[in-house]
Amino acid sequence: MASVPNKQPFFKKLSKGFTVGAVITGSTFFHGPPVLALGLTKLFKKSKKVDETNIRITNSWLSINNWLIDYVLPNTKWNIEIDPELELNMNGRYLMTCNHQSWVDTTVNQYFGLTRMPLTRFFTKWELIFIPFVGQAFKILGFPMMKRHTKIQIEKNPELKTRDMDEARKACEQLLSQPFTLLNYLEGTRFTKEKHQQQQSQYVNLLKPKAGGLALALNILGDQIDALVDMTIVYPDGVPDYGEFWLGEVPRIAVNLRKISIPDWVLGGNYEDDPIYKERFQNWVDELWQEKDQLITQMKQNLRNSLNEVS
What we know:
Blueprint: H1 10-41, H2 48-71, E1 77-82, E2 93-98, H3 104-113, E3 120-122, E4 124-125, H4 134-140, E5 145-146, H5 151-156, H6 160-174, E6 180-185, H7 193-199, H8 212-221, E7 227-234, H9 242-246, E8 252-260, H10 275-310
Parallel strand pairs: 1-8, 2-6, 2-7, 3-6, 4-5
Antiparallel strand pairs: 7-8
Helix pairs in contact: 1-2, 1-4, 6-8
Organism: Acinetobacter equi
GO molecular function: acyltransferase activity
Protein name: Acyltransferase
């Protein structure tokens, strides 16, 4: 079996790290202020033209990142498979699910989607709004931002249980005025062996899925989307952290996209208040997750076989 490429010499790594860091920082400070400035105008008047301009600016920022990936990190080999039944275009409306292992997942999604799909938003934690430029841009660009409340907090203030859902509902409804891709990491957190053991997950490669966010999105957007897309990401040589990725130390990344059929009964159900529908929806998501788990195992095997053929 062929070996994974060795780590880069220190000075080459330092040079690459400085270049990537400088370009990303400069690009963020160049693109961030216009998005924030235009976003402030929405406090006084909503404007479709402002939204479209902000998306163009954001796509320009992402294109800089993709240029770095293609020309500064050319050692990363990409294996991308797309379901023939899945027709993607820049004017579509898509819901997307994905497994979650690293912050690199979001960069992979953006790298893949920039020229194939509308700008990807995802359900994210409210606390990220405090990250300079990036967090505020999430809010301005319509990312559904969720506050996590403990059971004790909800018991003291039951209103908190529905407040988050109301905010997410508003964010989803606002997306209907434009093409969009709305991503939901169903696991709710990054996969680790420790979390997998703590959950006693029945899946080999995945944590247990949390279906509430997807149920909410399908309830609001389901009859107006072009497809429910499932993205599967595999790092065959080990899950990288963000620094390893941008230093070019990720030899291979495999991505699979498949179209998920939405049963008629899914649309129009009430996940929060109908226990029968909730159980049925959760069982449906569990079946999708079982298929995904098997797909990841097969992708890993195919990648091992291809590496053996090369060696």
